[in-house]
Amino acid sequence: MSESLDHVARIQAEWARERPDVDVSPQGVIGRLHRLSGHLTEQLCVVYRRHGLAEGEFDVLAALRRAGAPYERAPGELAQFTMVTTGAMTKRIDRLERGGLVTRRRSTADGRGRVVALTAAGRRLIDTAFAEHMANERRLLAGLSDGQAVQLEALLTDWLAEFETPR
């Protein structure tokens, strides 16, 4: 086996040797995406931690900030925007509230509902963290040319639609 093979290629070569009857070519894409996802998540979390946040907490603050003034959403809406259960969302909101980054109040539209809103401190934090996050993502894409990044985005958009577009 050549030393120039990456981790996935080495696994594919071993499988090709042991199971030549099975086409392992899909592993080239899926395996590399899986490994890349782990590396990217690790690099993204460095920025979140620098701001005292976990990945999920960053997501909550970002979802509130994207809502626009007055920077608030219902907890169920936040769960939908961050793709977590309402139970997991409650834990995130509790921690952010203890940190003075969000508040909870009864909804004026529906007295039974709750609303989560960014505090001024929460807005300052997410604005700073988001700017650094975008610089970090730009750095992570630096290994690709602009054309490659555009092409990869188009391919991933089409592929993701196969899983997420309602039929």
TrEMBL record:
<dbReference type="InterPro" id="IPR036388">
    <property type="entry name" value="WH-like_DNA-bd_sf"/>
</dbReference>
<protein>
    <submittedName>
        <fullName>Transcriptional regulator</fullName>
    </submittedName>
</protein>
<dbReference type="InterPro" id="IPR023187">
    <property type="entry name" value="Tscrpt_reg_MarR-type_CS"/>
</dbReference>
<keyword id="KW-0804">Transcription</keyword>
<dbReference type="GO" id="GO:0003700">
    <property type="term" value="F:DNA-binding transcription factor activity"/>
</dbReference>
<feature type="domain" description="HTH marR-type">
    <location>
        <begin position="26"/>
        <end position="161"/>
    </location>
</feature>
<dbReference type="GO" id="GO:0003677">
    <property type="term" value="F:DNA binding"/>
</dbReference>
<dbReference type="InterPro" id="IPR000835">
    <property type="entry name" value="HTH_MarR-typ"/>
</dbReference>
<dbReference type="Pfam" id="PF12802">
    <property type="entry name" value="MarR_2"/>
</dbReference>
<keyword id="KW-0805">Transcription regulation</keyword>
<keyword id="KW-0238">DNA-binding</keyword>
<dbReference type="InterPro" id="IPR036390">
    <property type="entry name" value="WH_DNA-bd_sf"/>
</dbReference>
